[in-house]
């Protein structure tokens, strides 16, 4: 996530997959990974903004407003970050002997 001066980018304040992934069922984690990859491959700005706001933020309206002000490259970078975070969660579960499919 980007940092601007002394202020952290607002996106990182409303999009935090690490806050809920550890408690989520593994099948849902895998579903989120597949969905995020599909969103990146078939990129549609409005659909992706709504997807991120609905699945990765506890404040959908604020997240939607913040992401609407971002350029496409930043939104795609955020999707990549989300995919990496999900993959890390799956790998962590494997290392800890938890179900990971």
Overview of this protein structure:
By secondary structure, the protein is mainly α. It has a domain at 46-93. The protein is 64% helix and 4% strand. The protein has five helices and two strands, in the order E-E-H-H-H-H-H. It has helices at 11-14, 26-41, 45-56, 60-68, 72-95, and strands at residues 3-4, 7-8. A two-stranded antiparallel ribbon has the order 1-2. Strand 1 (3-4) and strand 2 (7-8) form a beta hairpin. Helix 2 runs antiparallel to helix 5 (72-95).
Q: Strand arrangement, largest sheet?
A: 1-2
Compute the separation of the termini in Å: 29 Å
Note poorly predicted spans. Answer: 3-7
Residues in β-strands, percent: under 5%
Tell how many strands the DSSP assignment holds: 2
Average pLDDT for all residues: 88
Shape: globular
Number of helices: 5
Residues in helices, as a percent range: 55-70%
Oligomer type = single chain
Helix and strand pattern: EEHHHHH
Q: What composes the largest sheet? A: 2 strands, antiparallel
Instruction: Report the structural category.
Output: mainly alpha
User: Gyration radius, to the nearest Å?
Assistant: 14 Å
How are the SSEs placed, and which strands pair?
Blueprint: E1 3-4, E2 7-8, H1 11-14, H2 26-41, H3 45-56, H4 60-68, H5 72-95
Using brief descriptors, characterize the structure shown:
101 residues; mainly alpha; globular; 2 strands; two-stranded antiparallel ribbon
Concise account of the structure shown:
The protein is mainly alpha-helical.
């Amino acid at each position: 996530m980007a940092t601007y001066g002394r202020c952290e980018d607002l996106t990182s304040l409303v999009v935090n997959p690490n806050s809920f992934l550890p408690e989520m069922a593994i099948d849902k984690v895998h579903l989120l990974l597949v969905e995020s990859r599909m969103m990146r491959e078939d990129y549609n700005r409005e659909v992706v903004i709504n997807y991120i706001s609905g699945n990765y933020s506890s404040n959908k309206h604020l997240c939607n407003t913040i992401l609407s002000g971002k350029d496409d490259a930043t939104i795609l970078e955020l999707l990549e970050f989300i995919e990496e975070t999900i993959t890390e969660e799956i790998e962590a579960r494997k290392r800890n002997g938890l179900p990971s499919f």
